[in-house]
Amino acid sequence: LNHYLLEAKRQNIALELLESERKYVINLSLILKIKATLQGPDVKRSTKERSFFPNSLRYLVQQHVDLLHALQERVLSWPRQGILGDIFLKLTNDENNFLDYYVAYLRDLPECISLIHVVILKEVEEEIKSDLYILFFHIVQRIPEYLIHLQNVLKFTEQEHPDYYLLLVCVQRLRVFISHYSLLFQCNEDLLIQKR
């Protein structure tokens, strides 16, 4: 019985991960929508709208749409011994630039925030500005969120399970990544909380 309870628990956590990815992709596309509206004629030609937004955004959106599809395919037809680790193993692989684009995002963000702060001053856009900061914040927090999700799956994965070792490696990779860039994470979080 215990074994079946574990499997059910794993499936629930997998569904939670899928749902959070779906919301995240919606948030990312909202940023692109705001980006499109800011490209309007109001913004002075001299300020390149591009620099309001980290350049890595477009790439991240594409990556996460692909990830969402992969997760949907996997989680919605969850077999008796469902596996998630391989998806994240591929994502965090050195050949894949997924994590590099997050580093680029974290590096570009402070400048973008100060630009937005200076240029988008009209009261009408105050709301847009705080929405943007919240959406930017979600992106800063996404990798740490994956770590939590995968640790949760691992907690309910028996050592004999084919997913166990894969998850272990992914959790390790994400931990190393987050601790390596902890200052960048911290600096951006502080900045966004302060602006909000």
TrEMBL record:
<protein>
    <submittedName>
        <fullName>Rho guanine nucleotide exchange factor 33</fullName>
    </submittedName>
</protein>
<dbReference type="InterPro" id="IPR000219">
    <property type="entry name" value="DH_dom"/>
</dbReference>
<dbReference type="InterPro" id="IPR035899">
    <property type="entry name" value="DBL_dom_sf"/>
</dbReference>
<dbReference type="InterPro" id="IPR042849">
    <property type="entry name" value="ARHGEF33"/>
</dbReference>
<feature type="domain" description="DH">
    <location>
        <begin position="9"/>
        <end position="184"/>
    </location>
</feature>
<dbReference type="Pfam" id="PF00621">
    <property type="entry name" value="RhoGEF"/>
</dbReference>
<dbReference type="GO" id="GO:0005085">
    <property type="term" value="F:guanyl-nucleotide exchange factor activity"/>
</dbReference>
